[in-house]
Structure formats: C-alpha cells, structure tokens
C-alpha cells in the first residue's frame, strides 16, 4: 500500500496518468453510450411496433456480449487490413472507447427500455388524450426520467471502469498511451506482483466509489431544477 | 354521429366487450356505468383508438378532435403550471388559459408545486385542468372524479359540463356514481360483462 501511495503522489507520474486515462476513457464511453442508449431505450420502451419483441431480444443478447469477442471484432475492424484500418486507430484511446461503447450501449438501451415500459401505456394514453405528438412525448419523457437515467449512467460507468478484455485487445496496454487501471492490474498479476495488483484494485474501487458518490449527490440538485 | 356496429373485443379468446349497435349523437353526453370489468374502460379505449376491435366497425370517429382522460393519467414530474401548460398553445392567450384552467379546478396557489408531491385528488384535478385546454369535439373521460373528494366532485362536474358545452363536444364518460351519471349525461349506458344492458 505504501508503494502505491508513493507511486500516486511521488515523482513518477505513471500511476496518475493511468488513473487520468482510465477516467477519460470511462467518461467518453459512458457519455457516448448514454447518448445512444437512453434516447433509443426510451423510444423502445414507449413505442409499440411490429418486431419490437425481436429487437428487445437482440438487445438482451447484446447486453451479455463477451468483452473479448467485442475486442476481437473491433481489433479486426481497426487493424491495418480491416475496413477502418486507414484511420490508424488501433492501440489508441478512441479504439478503447469504440469497443466499450459497443459493450455499454445495449446495457443502457435495455435498462432504459425496461424502466420506461413500466409507465409506457399510461404515458402514451395521457399524451394521446392531450393531443401531444410522439416527438414531443419523447422529449417530455427524456426530461421526466432524467433522475432515473442517472442510475443507468452509473451502471454504464461501472461497466466501463471495470472492463478489461476489450480494452486490453484494442488498446494493447501500452505504457503512457493506453494503459488503464484494469489492464495495469492484469499486467501486475501476470508479473506475479500481487501486492501491487491488489493495491491498484483498491485504487480502482476508491475511484468507482468517489464517482458514484459524486453523481449520486447530484440527484437532489437535479430534482430542485 | 359515432356508430359502433357488431363490435367484439376479445382478450385471450374471452369476450370483454360485445356491442351489436350503439350510437353516440353529436353534442350529447353519455355516461357508462357498470361494475369493475364490465367493459367501460375498454369501450373508451376503443373510441380513443388505443385498441382495435376483434370484430365490427366504428364509424364517425375519423376527423374528430379527441380529448381523453385515462383512468390513471400520467402526471409529469414538473410543476402544476408546467403540467397544465402541456396542452396549451405557446402564447399570451395560452398562458392566460393555463391560469384559468388551474383556477377552475381549484388548484390556484399550487402553480409552482411539484406535481409528484400532490395527493391523488390534487393530481387528478391537474389532469382535468390540463384536459380543459384541449379544443376537442369528442371528450372521453374514464372515472374523472374517482380520486376526488365529494365536495370537489361537484365543482369538477360543473367544470366538465361547461367545458363540453363550450366546445359543443360529445361527452362519453365512465363512472361508478349514478348521481354523477344522471347529472352530467343525457343518456346512461349500462354495461355488464361487456354487454349493453337495458335500463
């Protein structure tokens, strides 16, 4: 533990950079996934259409996507011979974010759709009775559920910060470039440095707790809007 | 005139509404009475276009401007004024009507109150105020005053009556109160197990 505290506050910036990179990656993965999953999930929860059940089943399957499989697919997509190879994104932060968005968006979509479905009939009937258009209804519901969405966003963030398989494959755990907390823990474990791996795990846990606490403390402020 | 001919609504093979012929004349008020599960809500939802009949035809609803109050209307987690304003036009007249509607249902002083902190009866008043801003010629109300106390019901009955008259609308409402049915309706329709009964 002393070693980790030394690394955290000492002259070597590596651990601090790992933490910052982890937070940047998780922030972008969560925000992009929320921007996709929350409106899509709200729309899915509210709207009744042919094929909805199939769509939800597909989404449920995607919610359980193995990270390593996603990592492999994104790797193939971004590798030099892959269709997006020309962008030269492999082993970079954007590649890690892309992989995580593929993993987290279905989770946010599914959780949001389930949440909205609880009141979907009442909302639809109320809006129909008031002559409120579907587009306006979607906007109203997005605003109305903002506090509830926060929990979905936290779940997404939790998944992002703890994920290792996909980011290892597409990030490559490159020192000062793509090394994040989870890949650093895995590397330390592989090197047999269990104490350091455990200490890093503790730091990861503290970060997750602090972010959760900060976001949760925003909830009353949102309700006072 | 709205006409329902040979209507059957089935749910999991069971008949929940069966109407050979039923007419609703323009500008008239109709009360639907009957026990829970008698088909009142199903009939209103059918007229609102929320559900489709398994058999039969509904004539005369095309082109009608609808105002519909479900049994448990959704109240958005915003202020009373914002909730009522949802159905209003975004103008000075619209804002004036919002205040008038709030006053009519006796919710003046609650304008800034968060709707989620309201009691069941207060929330229902907000839902009714919201509906008053819809310019409709077909008004469907599902037990509009059920969560409201007895004194409040009389006030709301007057408001509903005036609203329907001002809009020259056809009113069809479900109620468990025969008194309310006789007060507001030109005709009372009794349903039992989804079938219209003679009164």
What do these coordinates show?
The complex is a heterodimer of chains A (225) and B (199). Chain A has one domain: Orthogonal Bundle (MetI-like fold), CATH 1.10.3720.10. In chain A, 78% of the residues lie in helices and 0% in strands. Chain A is built from eleven helices and no strands. By secondary structure, chain B is of the alpha/beta class. The mean pLDDT of chain B is 93. Chain B contains six helices and nine strands. The chains are: A mainly alpha (225), B alpha/beta (199). At the A-B interface, helix 6 and helix 7 of A face strand 5 and helix 4 of B.
Query: Whole-number average pLDDT of chain B?
Result: 93
Protein structure class of chain A: mainly alpha
Specify the CATH class of chain A.
Mainly Alpha
Question: N-to-C terminal Cα separation of chain B, in Å?
Answer: 22 Å
| Largest interface between protein chains, with number of residues from each side | A-B, 16 and 24 residues
Could you give a short account of the major beta sheet of chain B?
A: 6 strands, mixed
Q: Give the oligomer, counting copies of the same chain as homo and different chains as hetero.
A: heterodimer
The radius of gyration over CA of chain A amounts to: 20 Å
Overall shape of chain B: it is globular
Secondary structural class of chain B: alpha/beta
CATH superfamily of chain A: MetI-like
Report how far the terminal alpha carbons of chain A are from each other: 43 Å
Instruction: Describe the largest sheet of chain A.
Output: none
Please give the CATH architecture of chain A. Orthogonal Bundle
Beta-strand share of residues of chain A: under 5%
Radius of gyration of chain B: 17 Å
Helix content of chain A: over 70%
**What is the N-to-C order of secondary-structure elements of chain B (H for helix, E for strand)?**
EEEHEEHHHEHEHEE
User: Do you know the CATH topology of chain A?
Assistant: MetI-like fold
